[in-house]
Amino acid sequence: MGMNNHKASKGILLTISTASVVLFLIMWEIICSVGLVDPIFLPPPSEVFKKAFSMLSEGSLESHIWASTVRVMTGFFAATIIAIPLGIVLGTSQFARAVFNPILSFLRPLPSMSWIPLSLLWFGITETQKYSIVFMGTFAPALVYVIEATRNVDPLLIRAARNLGASRLQVMREVILPGSLPQILSGLKVILGLAWTCVISAELVAAREGLGFLIMNGKEYFQTEVVVLGMMMISITVLITDFIFRIIENCVLRWQK
User: Fold this and answer.
1) Cys staple from 198: which of 112, 136, 141, 202, with CB 3.0 to 4.6 Å?
2) What distance in Å separates the CA atoms of residue 106 and residue 91, rounded to the nearest whole number?
3) Domain for residue 74, yes or no?
4) Any idea what the CATH number is for the domain that residue 196 is in?
5) Banded model confidence at residue 2, pLDDT cuts 50, 70, 90
6) Does residue 158 have a pLDDT over 90?
7) Eight-state DSSP code of residue 110
8) Does the predicted model carry a pTM greater than 0.85?
């Protein structure tokens, strides 16, 4: 009975959310249609959807979405693969934190845009340059999340494992990593959204395809429907990747339930 009520409640909430989106689009269309807003500044949804269908039929919209997604995932996973083990080490060792904290404090405030001039000098207008922007924009925040998650593990569990004869590596693998994993994954979801900000900033400056390039190209030719379409595709793509991430998180943390 409780399960049925829960499903019914979720269905009602989904209906309300869908209705709010539809109502927002209708109001947007009406405001533009009656002339309250000049289409050159904000095109109606019908024009945006028309442009989307046109680009989908040409096959160009998918290529822009795919290019940005590959760049985000490559830079994000590269940062994650390094940040998780390094963060666990830094979170469990005061000496390691004393060595790396000054460097981390220097890197963390730097926005991804600040790395664009150097990355262009190092890699040119290449895919590697886009990957590096995402990596540099997400590595330091991901590392901070992992360090804090590691330090929040119950010290009683760590002491108990050591008293039972576990080595330092076993404590990290069997106690600290499982204990900090829920918080690490929650932080990585935030970092994934940040990775999209990084790649769009890189594509706005130096790219030949991608959603950032699509937005900049639309701006150059006064095609505001293309600009809005690019913005909408960023939001939709982020929502889809976040949904997939949640599925992976539920599978990894199934033991927690």
Assistant:
1) 112
2) 18
3) yes
4) 1.10.3720.10
5) low
6) no
7) -
8) no
